[in-house]
Amino acid sequence: MTARICGLALGLSVIGCAVPNVEEIRQQDLIGAAAAFQTNIGAIHQQDTEGYLSSYLNSPDFVVAGPDSIARGFIRFAEERRADSEWPDTLIAGVPTLVWIAPGVVYGAYPYTVVIAGDTSSGWSERIFLKTGGSWKIAVTSVIPRTENP
Hints:
The structure is a single chain. By secondary structure, this protein is of the alpha+beta class. The chain has a single domain (21-145), classed as Roll (Nuclear Transport Factor 2, Chain: A), CATH 3.10.450. It contains four helices and seven strands. The longest helix has 24 residues, at 22-45. The radius of gyration is 21 Å and the shape is elongated.
């Protein structure tokens, strides 16, 4: 009987060690996504095209959603960014709200105000961050412009 109890206790302790600490994974994922957000915004401030593009998932499944369209695929996105020399004069990115979805997947939304050639606009931008290998990439990005009430 004692050997059986010891065997059961040993089996339960092995199972307990194999169960991941979900809260620790969640916290680490949120930290990783927050760092990826800061890297992306920093590249915009520095007008660093390659640094900016390195923030995004290089995949045909990458998605850009705007007020008028949805586009898929990193290659086209990268080609368009490289061909466009215009950067914001000012970008104020608010503190992102980050929501852990699953291991390696974080949703983020933040308010923004941008000035380009004297025109100011504001709204919300959303991101889905995906952990790929050891780094975090933006797999989905969207812009939701603020509209004026009539």
